[in-house]
Amino acid sequence: MPEIIKDDRVVDDPWQALRLGEGQSPETLALPPEPTLFPLSVWKARKGELLSRARTAGVWLASHEAPEEIADDIGRLGIIGIDFPKFFDGRGYSSARLLRERFHFKGEIRAIGDVLQDQLFLMKRCGIDAYAVRPDKDIRAALAGLSGFGETYQADVDQPFPLFRRRPV
User: Which of 13, 84, 123, 127 would staple 157 via disulfide (CB 3.0–4.6 Å)?
Assistant: First the structure.
């Protein structure tokens, strides 16, 4: 079984992120029975079917897709994936913050795609709490990326006050 980083530890991962292949259609795709993160296009086309499998279906957003597209479903989702297609594509950080701060999503936000050790600390600060590290990288070494810094200066999802506001007077 593949592994992910979740809640600051390496755990087995029963979930898979489904990616449509060439020629596959969201409307006719055979839905796998395993816990699956479905692309937004499949979610939109087959939401009724997927909601009936609430514990084994989630949705993932591509970097160009906005969280507003699933705003009406946020309360019915337990897991949302955010795709990072390339190391230098940072749009997913904004999506995670929007899900946590604007839409008050309390479930799991999972980073998928080109997820590397250098990104994990900032991803966590933006509200991501599970990381599907790229398969060719050492997941245990990547876990160290979450504890590389002892203190932060700026406010973030978990700490709404910048450092200067946290200092005792």
Answer: 127
Q: Where are the alpha helices (DSSP H) in the chain?
A: 40-51, 91-97, 120-125, 139-143, 163-166
> What pTM value is reported for the model?
0.89
- CB environment 50-82: b (16+ within 10 A), e (fewer): beeeeebbbbbbbbebebeebeeebeebebbbb
Nearest alpha carbon to residue 129 among 163, 82, 66, 74: 82
**CATH 3.30.70 applies to domain 3-166:** no
**146 three-state secondary structure:** helix
User: What pLDDT score was predicted for residue 153?
Assistant: 67
Q: Where are the alpha helices (DSSP H) in 30-78?
A: 40-51
DSSP 79-114: EEEEEE-STT--HHHHHHHIIIIIS---SEEEEEES
User: pLDDT by residue (tens digit) across 81-119?
Assistant: 999 988 778 899 999 999 999 999 999 999 999 998 888
